[in-house]
Write a structure and sequence with these properties.
Structural class: mainly alpha
Oligomer: single chain
Helix content: over 70%
Shape: elongated
Strand content: under 5%
Largest sheet: none
Mean pLDDT: 86
Length: 204
């Protein structure tokens, strides 16, 4: 059984070892989302999961290994919940594009762990960390939406425009106060519908 955010509850995973690993993955993702990579220690991860450091090292090689695996696992799981259905694949490029982007915005709004993990991956991780997670998690949705925008508006640089969209989407929730103070017009785009409407006009 999958919960609303696409993650199995710990009690629904197989044997004891699998349950322990699932607990560590979920608990660690929450801690990295809350405190960032540099704000988390092995002691904190073990304490949050109510396990010993030995149990943690039985499943992962290092803090970096835990970070990459827990962040990737969480984001892969939640992004699966907005993957295009067979019906959506039959829509035209414009409809499919804005439907997916709308679901992505809703996901970030409703799931603070996912939003903060993506934000921290972009702003705080080392180059190797970002590359490992991006390859596993972010490449597919970016390439999917880039292909749709290219089909919808072939004269645009799809990757550049979508980079702008995703940066706005990821940053808006946590920086809305600052953005609104510095630029009221841009600050108004912190609302999901307003952000989508803005890009509809840009890509019209």
């Amino acid at each position: 059984m999958i919960s609303e955010n696409g993650l199995m509850s710990v009690g629904e995973v197989g044997g004891k070892r699998e349950r322990t690993r699932a607990l560590l993955l979920l608990s660690s993702a929450q801690q990295f989302a809350k405190h960032g990579y540099n704000g988390v220690s092995i002691d904190l991860l073990a304490k949050a999961a109510k396990l010993s450091k030995g149990a943690l090292y039985d499943h992962f090689k290092s803090k970096e290994d835990i970070y990459i695996q827990s962040t990737s696992h969480y984001l892969v799981s939640v992004l699966k919940t907005i993957k295009p259905s067979d019906v959506e694949k039959g829509l035209n490029a414009e409809q499919a594009l804005f439907l997916y982007l709308g679901k992505f915005l809703e996901l970030l709004h409703n799931d603070w762990v996912a939003r903060r993990l993506v934000l921290r991956v972009i702003t705080e991780s080392t180059g190797e960390n970002v590359q490992a997670i991006a390859r596993k998690v972010l490449t597919e949705p970016f390439e999917y939406t880039a292909s749709l925008l290219s089909a919808f508006r072939p004269e645009l640089d799809a990757e550049e425009h979508l980079f702008s969209f995703y940066c706005n989407a990821i940053l808006r929730e946590d920086f809305k106060g600052v953005i609104g103070a510095l630029s009221p017009n841009v600050g108004a785009l912190t609302d999901s519908d307003a952000l989508l409407d803005h890009f509809r006009k840009v890509w019209a």
